[in-house]
From TrEMBL, chain A:
Lineage of origin: Bacteria, Pseudomonadati, Pseudomonadota, Alphaproteobacteria, Rhodobacterales
Domain of life: Bacteria
InterPro entries: DUF1468
Entry keyword annotation includes Transmembrane: yes
Pfam families: TctB
Keywords for this protein: Membrane, Transmembrane, Transmembrane helix
Protein's organism: Salipiger mangrovisoli
Identification of the protein by name: Tripartite tricarboxylate transporter TctB family protein
Residue ranges of domain DUF1468 in the record: 11-151
Transmembrane segments: 42-61, 81-98, 127-150
TrEMBL record, chain B:
Protein name: Tripartite tricarboxylate transporter permease
PANTHER family associated with the record: TRICARBOXYLIC TRANSPORT PROTEIN
Protein's UniProt keywords contain Membrane: yes
Lineage of producing organism: Bacteria, Pseudomonadati, Pseudomonadota, Alphaproteobacteria, Rhodobacterales
Source organism of this protein record: Salipiger mangrovisoli
Keywords, comma-separated and alphabetical: Membrane, Transmembrane, Transmembrane helix
Domain of life: Bacteria
All copies of domain DUF112, residue ranges: 16-431
Membrane-spanning segments: 15-45, 57-78, 105-128, 140-159, 165-183, 190-211, 253-274, 313-337, 349-373, 385-404, 424-445, 457-481
Parts forming coiled coils: none
Pfam family membership, one: TctA
Entry-linked InterPro entries: DUF112_TM
Length: 151, 494
């Protein structure tokens, strides 16, 4: 799937402006310090938000004025790959959520196997044996040799 | 005569063994994503309790030097910076490995780290007390000017200046999350306690470079692109060495100078060295494509910082960075108070540490070169298995820094952000630089304004700030200037 860079920049610029709006709203919640200086806790955030908003407008204007050149087109992954990538992201979020409550060994083993399947590995021997060996080797190396605590 | 007598204990077998083991241990720790030299030194300090000061402290210096060097291994092979100090090495190291020259990239990194380390060690041994005086002249205005100068790297690193600037500003905004450095007021934490100290830098960096690369790998696997598995020899070619001469010297000197300024660190030094080397190069377009001088600049700079950061520690009692702060703990445990008096009261320890820095750097070279074939074999592991192994290492690395599960979400979030930035032409490097320099810039800008009743002119009142601000203007204008120069030269040739 090919995406025009100008079109992408237009959407990104608009998204950044929305983001600036949201962050500006949150910045109003920052309490001001007790000092007399004009440069309080929200001084730099306001400065940066203003600059990002300005540059986002420039990005939009540039996208509107630019002519299409094929070499700047962006190759997007196909639907199947995008679904796999979303699945992989979800897997990592679940792994992060399970890491502390379930513990390193079971969470890593499950994440490893599911991850290999999502990456397209279909050799069952590798899908089962490699995660078991690797998970145990990493656990031993970190906890015993490097004294790093793992849940 | 005294100096020779003070150096003699360094050559006792058990001292040499301690330095060698420290360096090797540091190398392994540094090579593992997320495990930093700081963590290595902190973990192994208890081992040095029963050792003599020279033996114990030099073992810690070995871990420090090995740890900073080790970071380049995963940067080059896996696009996963082992330590924040080696984040800039990703830019040319990984593309070089992708071209099938992983061995030569690691070889260049080892040689550069050794040269940087040795040059800074010579400076440490000869000019420590004199140079430490410069560090004392740095106040809020000077640190602000330095941070501002560092941020101008973004201008020359970004192919698209507009997107580079947006990336950098986003990095600065992200760095403001958490407690305000001056007043302690919470900013953008949404009531989540885990964000009180802001986004942890190392998990963010691992996500930005390593996890985003995994998404790219998924695209490549789907497209059935064959990975390049060749590792090449371990020695850089004669042409690569010749091209890198200037980068090695420039990186070493920049690393030494940055290293003596407390609170800056090897991450800042390697980015500045990369930028200056690129700007001085006749072929700047080759940087970022797997060009050996890019590795030479960053690796010589970050290892030069190791010895240079010992200068303010030993001469003034001020730690130059986080690792030397932990090292200071090692000195105190041995009953030694760092500072000017240390040179008078314990010259044997000071000279022993100077000598130990040289020996640890030489051990780093020996182990580094010997292990290149072993490291390069990582690339032989089938891509899917390697990808999932990296995910697990990234999770453990991100978690083990603060034992904080929030860091895992930070890493995943930055991974997705990094992939999107890469895909749409935004600069991950610019975001990374801004994350490093943002807190330094903000705290010193505001401190300077507070100290001088909001008088902006106080920032241009000393020669050091004027120098850095002048360099900032020059550095920011350089991409435009170089374009004009190139155009004029082309017109003259026609």
């Amino acid at each position: 799937m090919v995406l025009r860079e100008q079109k992408a920049d237009l959407w990104i610029g608009a998204g950044l402006l929305l983001f600036c709006g949201f962050v500006s709203w949150r910045t109003t919640y920052i309490k001001q310090g007790i000092g007399s200086s004009a440069a309080g806790p929200s001084f730099l955030p306001w400065l940066v938000i203003g600059l990002i908003a300005l540059l986002s407008v420039l990005l939009i204007v540039r996208a509107l004025r630019a002519e299409r050149t094929p070499e700047t087109d962006i190759m997007m992954p196909g639907k199947r790959v995008l679904v796999a990538m979303a699945g992989f992201t979800l897997l990592m979020i679940c792994y992060a959520a399970a890491f502390m409550p379930i513990g390193y060994l079971p969470s890593t083993l499950v994440a490893f196997i599911v991850g290999l399947l999502l990456l397209g590995e279909r050799n069952w021997l590798l899908v089962v044996l490699f995660p078991v060996g690797m998970t145990l080797a990493i656990y031993f190396g970190f906890t015993e040799l490097l004294s790093v605590w793992l849940p | 005569m005294d100096t020779i007598a003070f150096l003699a204990p360094l050559f006792e077998p058990q001292v040499l063994l301690a330095i060698a083991l420290g360096t090797l241990g540091g190398l392994v720790i540094g090579a593992l994503p997320g495990l930093t030299a700081t963590m290595g030194v902190a973990l192994l300090i208890p081992l040095t309790f029963g050792m003599t000061p020279v033996m114990g402290l030099n073992m810690l210096i070995g871990i420090y030097i090995g740890g900073i060097y080790g970071g380049c291994v995963s940067s080059i092979l896996l696009r996963t910076p082992g330590t924040p100090a080696s984040a800039a090495t990703v830019l040319d190291g990984y593309p070089m490995a992708q071209k099938g020259a992983a061995g030569r990239a690691l070889g260049m990194a080892t040689i550069a780290s050794t040269i940087g380390g040795l040059i800074a060690a010579v400076v440490l041994a000869t000019l420590a007390p004199q140079l430490a005086g410069i560090a004392l002249k740095f106040g809020a205005a000077e640190y602000f000017a330095l941070a501002l100068f560092g941020l101008t790297i973004i201008a020359s690193l970004s192919g698209d200046l507009l997107k580079g600037a947006i990336s950098g500003l986003l990095g600065i905004l992200i760095s403001t999350v958490g407690a305000d450095p001056i007043s302690g007021v919470m900013r953008y934490t949404f009531g989540i306690h885990g964000f009180a100290s802001g986004f942890s830098f190392t998990p963010a960096l691992i996500g930005l470079f390593a996890l985003s690369e995994l998404f790219t790998q998924m695209e490549r696997i789907a497209a059935n692109e064959e990975p390049i598995r060749g590792a090449s020899g371990r020695w850089p070619t004669r042409a690569e060495m010749s091209e890198s001469k200037g980068a090695l010297i420039r990186g070493s000197l920049i690393g030494t100078l940055i290293g003596i300024i407390p609170g800056t660190g090897s991450g800042t030094a390697s980015w500045i060295a990369y930028n200056e080397t690129r700007r001085a190069s006749k072929t700047p377009e080759k940087f970022g494509t797997g060009y050996a001088p890019g590795i030479a600049a960053t690796e010589s700079a970050n290892n030069a910082v190791c010895a240079a950061a010992l200068i303010p520690l030993l001469a003034l009692g001020i730690p130059g960075d986080v690792v030397t702060a932990v090292l200071m703990g090692g000195l105190l445990i041995q009953g030694l108070a760092p500072g000017p008096m240390l040179f008078q009261t314990n010259p044997d320890v000071v000279v022993g540490m100077f000598g130990g820095t040289f020996i640890a750097t030489i051990f780093m070279f020996i182990f580094g070169m010997a292990l290149i074939p072993v490291f390069s074999r990582i690339l032989m592991i089938p891509r899917r298995l390697l990808a999932m192994s990296i995910v697990v290492f990234c999770f453990i690395g991100a978690f083990s820094i603060n034992l904080n599960p929030v860091d895992l979400y930070t890493m995943v979030g930055f991974g997705v952000l990094g992939w999107g930035m890469q895909k749409f032409g935004f600069s991950q490097a610019a975001l990374c630089i801004a994350l490093i320099l943002g807190p330094l810039l903000e705290s010193n800008l505001r401190r300077g304004l507070l100290q001088n009743d909001d008088n902006v002119l106080s920032f241009i009142s000393t020669p050091i700030t004027l120098l850095f601000l002048g360099l900032t203007v020059f550095s920011a204008a350089w991409p435009f200037l170089s374009r004009v120069i190139t155009r004029n030269r082309a017109a003259q040739h026609q």
